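Question:
Now give any protein.
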Amino acid sequence: MSNTGSHPVTVVITCAIRPDKLEVARQELKAVIRQVMALEPACKGIRVLEATDAPHHWLIVEQWESEEVFSGPHMQQPHMRAFMKTAETFLDGKADFEFWHETFAA
């Protein structure tokens, strides 16, 4: 069951990067994150993690005002459309997207 709406959402993206394209992927992701943070106030933060034993496996954790904002306006931004096209050159397969809502925090 999807819980879309105006509730804050954590977007968890997992992906594999082609080992020979790691530096390009890092540069492109850093550039698009700078644009997102500068131009999209609905984004509350983005963290990128690499697996300790496999630096080509990435986990991207994004905080958004809502799933609707992420899936709609954010993904339609010109910088995101361009990035998604560029990502095809360095992704090893497809990226997986999951949407999480906080239940509680300590």
In short: The beta strands are 9-16, 43-51, 54-64, 96-100. The chain has a mean pLDDT of 94.
